[in-house]
Amino acid sequence: MNRQDFRFFHTLRVRWVEVDMQKIVFNGHYLMYLDTAVSDYWRALALPYEQSLHGMGGDLFVVKSSLEYKASALYDDLLHIGMRCARIGNSSMVFEGGVFCGEQILVKGELVYVFADPQTQTSQAVPQALRDILLGFEQGEAVTALQLGTWEELKALAAPLRTEVFVDEQGVDQALEWDAQDAQCLHAVLCNRLGAPVATGRLLPAVNGVAKIGRMAVKRVLRGQRLGDQVLSALMHAARQRGDTEILLHAQCSAEKFYLRQGFRRQGDVFMEADMPHIEMVCKL
User: What is the residue-wise DSSP string for 22-52?
Assistant: First the structure.
């Protein structure tokens, strides 16, 4: 087993609390490392775990776990936890993991899950949709698909996600969230392979060559997976294609670093919008 065997990695640094009296990571923590990596693996698939699994009528239950120790990790080591779906049976799935420090393999692990009814915990066949997503990911396939269109075309996908993020999570008043500009905008919606929306945004008509992007939203449990990057890049490309020369947006201050990475710069002072601090940001096209 080596690093090239894995498409997915979860990175963590060994904490003081995980080291035992021998000054090495306590053996039981490696199982926690693998379990944490599995959780992040589902995010890499753009699948909110509970919502997605229950939507397919089941859940995953561990029936076997095993670890093989090769070497020890020390306090403050930076570890890379490789995870892959190695085999899928009728109702079972085998995940293999590797704990690496640099190129060195420290621990090999195997987790065997059974797809089962969440109430009765009786096994059932792995849904074909889930099978396709797992095998496709391991073969290098994309886990999301982007759609661009009008509000009429994409409202059914974008509206529930915006409600979830802005109204339910952030407490924005419904009257502020929905406006007449939606009908004039180009909308982008990113969906996972189950067809569920995971990120969205809109591009307003340009004024004197300056376009405005807004209503950028990413499903809470999937943030940090660069899903918003895909939506923002698509909207910026669309603005460039229609001849716009600059993009302007009002970023929540908590998202400022995200836009800075995309080439935006802040302009002016912090102001309040929908009872949240914002900063105006611009980017030349």
Answer: TSSB-TTHHHHHHHHHHHHHHHHTT--HHHH
> Are 202 and 185 contacting, i.e. CB atoms less than 8 angstroms apart?
yes
Residue with tokens 């936890």: 81
Do residues 136 and 146 make contact, with C-beta atoms less than 8 angstroms apart? Answer: no
Question: Taking a C-beta distance cutoff of 8 angstroms, is the pair 87, 39 a contact?
Answer: no
Rounded Cα gap, residues 210 and 239, in angstroms: 9
What residues pair up with 243 in beta bridges, in sequence order?
none
Q: Which whole number is the average pLDDT over 181-187?
A: 97
Range of the domain at 211: 144-284
> Looking at the structure, do residues 99 and 179 belong to the same domain, yes or no?
no
User: What is 226-284 written as a DSSP string?
Assistant: SHHHHHHHHHHHHHHHTT--EEEEEEEGGGHHHHHHTT-EEEEEEEEETTEEEEEEEEE
Name the pTM for this structure. 0.93
* Residue 96 pLDDT level (bands cut at 50, 70, 90): very high
Total domain count, the chain: 2
In this prediction, residues 15-40 reach a mean pLDDT of 96
Give residue 105's pLDDT band: very low, low, confident or very high (50, 70, 90). very high
